[in-house]
Amino acid sequence: MIRSMTGYGSAEMLTPARRFTVEMRSVNHRFSEILVRLPRDLSALEDRVRALVQSRVLRGRVDVTIMREERGARPKTVRSDTDLARAYAQALRELADVLGVAGEIGLSHIVSLPDVVKVEEAREDVEVLWPDLSRAVEEAVIALVGMREAEGRRLAADLLTRLDHVEGFARVIEGRARVAAAEYAQRLRQRVAELLREVPVDEARLAMEIAIFAERVDISEEVTRLRSHLAQFREDVTNAAGAVGRRLEFVLQEMGREANTIGSKASDLEITRAVIGVKSELESLREQVQNVE
Q1: What is the pLDDT of residues 191-224, one digit of tens each?
Q2: CA neighbours within 13 Å on the CB side: how many for 128?
Q3: Does domain 7-73+126-148 correspond to CATH entry 3.30.230?
Protein backbone atom coordinates (compact mmCIF):
# COMPACT_ATOMS: atom_id res chain seq x y z
CA MET A 1 0.00 0.00 0.00
CA ILE A 2 1.18 3.50 -0.77
CA ARG A 3 2.38 5.96 1.88
CA SER A 4 1.93 9.70 2.09
CA MET A 5 4.91 12.04 2.28
CA THR A 6 3.36 14.19 5.01
CA GLY A 7 3.51 13.14 8.63
CA TYR A 8 4.66 13.86 12.15
CA GLY A 9 6.34 11.77 14.80
CA SER A 10 7.87 12.43 18.19
CA ALA A 11 9.44 10.48 21.02
CA GLU A 12 11.17 11.00 24.36
CA MET A 13 13.91 9.03 26.06
CA LEU A 14 14.27 9.69 29.78
CA THR A 15 17.37 8.60 31.66
CA PRO A 16 18.59 9.45 35.18
CA ALA A 17 20.98 12.00 33.68
CA ARG A 18 19.01 13.59 30.85
CA ARG A 19 15.95 13.69 28.61
CA PHE A 20 16.12 13.43 24.83
CA THR A 21 13.16 14.77 22.83
CA VAL A 22 12.98 13.99 19.10
CA GLU A 23 10.46 15.56 16.72
CA MET A 24 10.10 14.78 13.00
CA ARG A 25 7.99 16.54 10.38
CA SER A 26 7.84 15.42 6.77
CA VAL A 27 6.43 17.15 3.69
CA ASN A 28 6.38 16.62 -0.07
CA HIS A 29 9.67 16.60 -1.91
CA ARG A 30 10.75 15.25 -5.28
CA PHE A 31 13.63 13.33 -3.71
CA SER A 32 14.76 12.35 -0.21
CA GLU A 33 16.07 15.15 2.00
CA ILE A 34 16.74 14.74 5.72
CA LEU A 35 17.57 17.89 7.72
CA VAL A 36 18.86 17.29 11.25
CA ARG A 37 19.03 19.92 13.99
CA LEU A 38 20.68 18.89 17.25
CA PRO A 39 22.88 20.36 20.00
CA ARG A 40 26.29 21.38 18.73
CA ASP A 41 28.23 19.00 20.93
CA LEU A 42 26.23 16.11 19.40
CA SER A 43 26.97 17.10 15.80
CA ALA A 44 29.16 14.02 15.39
CA LEU A 45 25.96 11.96 15.51
CA GLU A 46 24.19 13.82 12.70
CA ASP A 47 25.09 11.32 9.98
CA ARG A 48 23.92 8.41 12.13
CA VAL A 49 20.58 10.10 12.76
CA ARG A 50 20.17 10.83 9.05
CA ALA A 51 21.00 7.25 8.08
CA LEU A 52 18.54 5.87 10.60
CA VAL A 53 15.73 8.04 9.22
CA GLN A 54 16.61 7.29 5.59
CA SER A 55 16.39 3.57 6.28
CA ARG A 56 12.64 3.99 6.87
CA VAL A 57 11.71 7.06 4.80
CA LEU A 58 12.40 6.71 1.08
CA ARG A 59 11.11 10.02 -0.27
CA GLY A 60 10.12 13.44 1.04
CA ARG A 61 11.70 16.17 3.13
CA VAL A 62 12.03 15.32 6.80
CA ASP A 63 12.98 17.90 9.43
CA VAL A 64 14.44 16.23 12.51
CA THR A 65 14.81 18.27 15.70
CA ILE A 66 16.65 16.80 18.68
CA MET A 67 16.57 18.52 22.06
CA ARG A 68 18.46 17.54 25.20
CA GLU A 69 17.56 18.49 28.74
CA GLU A 70 20.04 17.75 31.50
CA ARG A 71 18.42 16.52 34.69
CA GLY A 72 21.45 17.27 36.84
CA ALA A 73 24.44 19.60 36.83
CA ARG A 74 27.07 18.61 34.32
CA PRO A 75 30.68 18.54 35.54
CA LYS A 76 32.55 21.79 34.91
CA THR A 77 36.21 22.70 34.77
CA VAL A 78 37.96 26.07 35.24
CA ARG A 79 40.86 26.74 32.92
CA SER A 80 43.27 29.66 32.98
CA ASP A 81 45.29 30.86 30.01
CA THR A 82 48.61 31.83 31.61
CA ASP A 83 50.21 32.93 28.35
CA LEU A 84 47.34 35.28 27.67
CA ALA A 85 47.51 36.58 31.27
CA ARG A 86 51.24 37.39 30.88
CA ALA A 87 50.53 39.17 27.61
CA TYR A 88 47.78 41.24 29.26
CA ALA A 89 50.12 42.14 32.18
CA GLN A 90 52.87 43.20 29.82
CA ALA A 91 50.48 45.26 27.72
CA LEU A 92 49.09 46.98 30.84
CA ARG A 93 52.59 47.89 32.07
CA GLU A 94 53.54 49.32 28.67
CA LEU A 95 50.30 51.27 28.58
CA ALA A 96 50.95 52.67 32.07
CA ASP A 97 54.46 53.79 31.03
CA VAL A 98 53.18 55.48 27.89
CA LEU A 99 50.40 57.29 29.72
CA GLY A 100 52.49 58.03 32.78
CA VAL A 101 49.91 56.44 35.05
CA ALA A 102 51.06 55.08 38.37
CA GLY A 103 49.54 52.06 40.08
CA GLU A 104 50.00 48.39 40.62
CA ILE A 105 48.54 45.83 38.23
CA GLY A 106 46.68 43.36 40.43
CA LEU A 107 45.42 39.85 39.83
CA SER A 108 41.82 41.06 39.94
CA HIS A 109 42.50 43.32 36.96
CA ILE A 110 43.96 40.53 34.85
CA VAL A 111 41.34 37.93 35.81
CA SER A 112 38.57 40.29 34.72
CA LEU A 113 39.97 40.53 31.20
CA PRO A 114 38.40 38.36 28.41
CA ASP A 115 39.41 34.70 28.06
CA VAL A 116 41.94 34.66 30.89
CA VAL A 117 39.76 32.34 32.97
CA LYS A 118 37.16 30.07 31.34
CA VAL A 119 34.52 27.83 32.87
CA GLU A 120 33.85 24.88 30.60
CA GLU A 121 31.39 22.00 30.82
CA ALA A 122 33.00 18.63 30.51
CA ARG A 123 32.50 17.09 27.08
CA GLU A 124 30.52 13.89 27.07
CA ASP A 125 31.41 10.88 24.97
CA VAL A 126 28.87 10.74 22.13
CA GLU A 127 29.32 6.98 21.93
CA VAL A 128 27.90 6.75 25.43
CA LEU A 129 24.93 8.95 24.48
CA TRP A 130 24.13 7.28 21.16
CA PRO A 131 22.26 4.18 22.45
CA ASP A 132 19.68 6.32 24.30
CA LEU A 133 19.42 8.86 21.49
CA SER A 134 19.10 6.18 18.80
CA ARG A 135 16.16 4.59 20.62
CA ALA A 136 14.39 7.96 20.75
CA VAL A 137 15.07 8.50 17.03
CA GLU A 138 13.77 5.03 16.17
CA GLU A 139 10.56 5.57 18.12
CA ALA A 140 10.01 8.94 16.43
CA VAL A 141 10.60 7.39 12.99
CA ILE A 142 8.11 4.62 13.76
CA ALA A 143 5.51 7.23 14.73
CA LEU A 144 6.27 9.27 11.61
CA VAL A 145 5.98 6.26 9.30
CA GLY A 146 2.76 5.19 11.03
CA MET A 147 1.17 8.55 10.30
CA ARG A 148 2.42 8.47 6.70
CA GLU A 149 0.92 4.99 6.27
CA ALA A 150 -2.43 6.07 7.73
CA GLU A 151 -2.53 9.07 5.41
CA GLY A 152 -1.46 6.76 2.58
CA ARG A 153 -4.51 4.54 3.16
CA ARG A 154 -6.78 7.57 2.88
CA LEU A 155 -4.95 8.67 -0.26
CA ALA A 156 -5.27 5.19 -1.77
CA ALA A 157 -9.04 5.14 -1.15
CA ASP A 158 -9.44 8.47 -2.91
CA LEU A 159 -7.16 7.48 -5.79
CA LEU A 160 -9.02 4.20 -6.36
CA THR A 161 -12.38 5.98 -6.31
CA ARG A 162 -11.21 8.42 -8.95
CA LEU A 163 -9.69 5.55 -10.92
CA ASP A 164 -13.13 3.89 -10.96
CA HIS A 165 -14.52 7.09 -12.48
CA VAL A 166 -11.86 7.05 -15.20
CA GLU A 167 -12.62 3.41 -15.96
CA GLY A 168 -16.29 4.29 -16.23
CA PHE A 169 -15.52 6.99 -18.77
CA ALA A 170 -13.27 4.53 -20.63
CA ARG A 171 -16.19 2.10 -20.91
CA VAL A 172 -18.35 4.87 -22.35
CA ILE A 173 -15.63 5.73 -24.88
CA GLU A 174 -15.16 2.09 -25.85
CA GLY A 175 -18.90 1.52 -26.23
CA ARG A 176 -19.49 4.61 -28.33
CA ALA A 177 -16.45 3.87 -30.50
CA ARG A 178 -18.10 0.61 -31.65
CA VAL A 179 -21.20 2.35 -32.99
CA ALA A 180 -19.77 5.72 -34.08
CA ALA A 181 -18.63 4.44 -37.49
CA ALA A 182 -21.98 2.71 -38.12
CA GLU A 183 -23.88 5.87 -37.20
CA TYR A 184 -21.64 7.92 -39.48
CA ALA A 185 -22.28 5.47 -42.34
CA GLN A 186 -26.01 5.79 -41.83
CA ARG A 187 -25.86 9.60 -41.75
CA LEU A 188 -23.67 9.65 -44.83
CA ARG A 189 -26.09 7.42 -46.75
CA GLN A 190 -29.01 9.63 -45.78
CA ARG A 191 -27.13 12.78 -46.77
CA VAL A 192 -26.06 11.36 -50.14
CA ALA A 193 -29.58 10.13 -50.81
CA GLU A 194 -31.03 13.55 -50.05
CA LEU A 195 -28.54 15.25 -52.37
CA LEU A 196 -28.72 12.80 -55.28
CA ARG A 197 -32.39 11.89 -55.00
CA GLU A 198 -33.09 9.95 -58.23
CA VAL A 199 -29.43 9.40 -59.12
CA PRO A 200 -28.15 5.93 -58.17
CA VAL A 201 -25.66 5.87 -55.28
CA ASP A 202 -22.15 4.63 -56.02
CA GLU A 203 -21.94 1.99 -53.31
CA ALA A 204 -18.22 1.32 -53.87
CA ARG A 205 -17.32 4.98 -53.43
CA LEU A 206 -19.60 5.25 -50.40
CA ALA A 207 -18.04 2.19 -48.83
CA MET A 208 -14.56 3.63 -49.38
CA GLU A 209 -15.53 6.92 -47.70
CA ILE A 210 -16.96 5.02 -44.74
CA ALA A 211 -13.78 2.91 -44.47
CA ILE A 212 -11.57 6.01 -44.55
CA PHE A 213 -13.62 7.63 -41.82
CA ALA A 214 -13.58 4.48 -39.69
CA GLU A 215 -9.80 4.28 -39.94
CA ARG A 216 -9.36 7.96 -39.11
CA VAL A 217 -11.48 7.80 -35.95
CA ASP A 218 -10.38 4.34 -34.81
CA ILE A 219 -9.35 4.61 -31.15
CA SER A 220 -9.18 0.93 -30.27
CA GLU A 221 -5.40 1.01 -29.73
CA GLU A 222 -5.60 4.11 -27.54
CA VAL A 223 -8.40 2.60 -25.45
CA THR A 224 -6.41 -0.63 -25.03
CA ARG A 225 -3.33 1.30 -23.84
CA LEU A 226 -5.48 3.44 -21.54
CA ARG A 227 -6.93 0.31 -19.94
CA SER A 228 -3.42 -1.11 -19.53
CA HIS A 229 -2.28 2.07 -17.76
CA LEU A 230 -5.35 1.97 -15.52
CA ALA A 231 -4.57 -1.61 -14.52
CA GLN A 232 -0.92 -0.70 -13.82
CA PHE A 233 -1.97 2.30 -11.73
CA ARG A 234 -4.40 0.20 -9.68
CA GLU A 235 -1.76 -2.47 -9.10
CA ASP A 236 0.79 0.09 -7.90
CA VAL A 237 -1.67 1.78 -5.55
CA THR A 238 -2.92 -1.51 -4.11
CA ASN A 239 0.12 -3.77 -3.92
CA ALA A 240 3.36 -1.93 -4.67
CA ALA A 241 5.85 -1.51 -1.83
CA GLY A 242 8.39 1.27 -1.43
CA ALA A 243 8.49 4.61 -3.21
CA VAL A 244 6.00 4.43 -6.10
CA GLY A 245 4.98 8.08 -6.34
CA ARG A 246 7.17 8.94 -9.31
CA ARG A 247 6.04 5.81 -11.17
CA LEU A 248 2.42 6.80 -10.60
CA GLU A 249 3.20 10.26 -11.98
CA PHE A 250 4.62 8.66 -15.13
CA VAL A 251 1.60 6.38 -15.61
CA LEU A 252 -0.72 9.37 -15.22
CA GLN A 253 1.28 11.22 -17.84
CA GLU A 254 0.81 8.31 -20.25
CA MET A 255 -2.92 8.17 -19.52
CA GLY A 256 -3.17 11.87 -20.27
CA ARG A 257 -1.41 11.32 -23.60
CA GLU A 258 -3.88 8.58 -24.60
CA ALA A 259 -6.84 10.76 -23.55
CA ASN A 260 -5.55 13.63 -25.70
CA THR A 261 -5.20 11.33 -28.71
CA ILE A 262 -8.70 9.94 -28.24
CA GLY A 263 -10.08 13.45 -27.95
CA SER A 264 -8.35 14.58 -31.14
CA LYS A 265 -9.78 11.62 -33.09
CA ALA A 266 -13.27 11.72 -31.62
CA SER A 267 -16.13 12.95 -33.79
CA ASP A 268 -18.79 11.81 -31.36
CA LEU A 269 -20.23 14.15 -28.75
CA GLU A 270 -20.54 11.48 -26.07
CA ILE A 271 -16.91 10.44 -26.57
CA THR A 272 -15.81 14.07 -26.32
CA ARG A 273 -17.72 14.48 -23.07
CA ALA A 274 -16.21 11.28 -21.69
CA VAL A 275 -12.70 12.49 -22.62
CA ILE A 276 -13.35 15.73 -20.74
CA GLY A 277 -14.39 13.65 -17.72
CA VAL A 278 -11.22 11.55 -17.99
CA LYS A 279 -9.01 14.64 -18.10
CA SER A 280 -10.76 16.15 -15.10
CA GLU A 281 -10.23 13.01 -13.03
CA LEU A 282 -6.62 12.69 -14.20
CA GLU A 283 -5.92 16.23 -13.02
CA SER A 284 -7.34 15.39 -9.59
CA LEU A 285 -5.28 12.19 -9.51
CA ARG A 286 -2.16 14.14 -10.45
CA GLU A 287 -2.65 16.53 -7.54
CA GLN A 288 -3.08 13.66 -5.08
CA VAL A 289 -0.13 11.67 -6.42
CA GLN A 290 2.15 14.63 -5.66
CA ASN A 291 1.87 13.56 -2.01
CA VAL A 292 2.62 9.86 -2.55
CA GLU A 293 6.02 8.60 -1.37
Answers
A1: 655 656 656 656 676 567 656 665 666 788 888 9
A2: 6
A3: yes
